[in-house]
Request: fold
Amino acid sequence: MEFCDDEFSDDDLTNFEAHGATLPANPDTQGYVEHKGAQIWYATYGSGSPVILLHGGFGHSGNWSYQLPDLFTAGHRVIFIDSRGHGRSTRDDRPYSYELMASDVLAVMDTLHLERAALVGWSDGACIALILADQAPFRVAGAFFFGCNMDPSGLKQINERNPLLHRCLGRHAMDYAQLSPTPDQFNEFAHAVRIMMNTQPNYTSQDLARVSVPVAIVQAEHDEFIKDEHAEYLARTIPNAKLIILKGVSHFVPLQRPHIFNAAMLAFITEVLPDRPSMRGAVTL
Reply:
């Protein structure tokens, strides 16, 4: 299955670098959950069948700002979570792990009394989503897994000179300084996250075969980080998973060409949450 679109674009991320991406200032609910030595920030918009958006490494929930209007208009309750140590959330001195951050998501779900939700994950957020699908399948309606590996062999050798990476990381550093309770510690934070990225996760084919919820493995045609063959392997190995290729875009498509990403995301969510309510008005960003 393929999705492509020629609408709004920020292919070189110059708009993102200059202005960032933020959520509306008026969520229906927001707050912090105390969990395992950290305060985990969350915000929700809308009502109806719940969709949780899990952002990538070094980023924060605002990076999903282009996805919120379409999800809200489709009648979903949209839940954003700043991962442990990212954005507004704090961390203690324990090492990062995807399993720990997955447990943070469950803590937020418990606080919001969400029995079950669809999960949309981007990069590190995708890994968190699939771990939840494995470890707590009764809480996960489906996992939209975009741009991530489930063992270190899935990573490409990164081109450190890629200007997109510099623009994105520079924006993340600025956002961290504005949002984090430890605004002067971005370098220490990034070092700790990179250790996790370079050594985790380590799912085997047997681990992947346990996953019982609907999963979409979503790969950008020009992803800078994830090997195409790894995405194909995940789609083959996870029972009943489907492979979706986003044509002509990169790892940053939710920011670069949101209409391409959103079309694929909404099609999947419609399948796993068929009982969503009627359409709603749009969110103003």
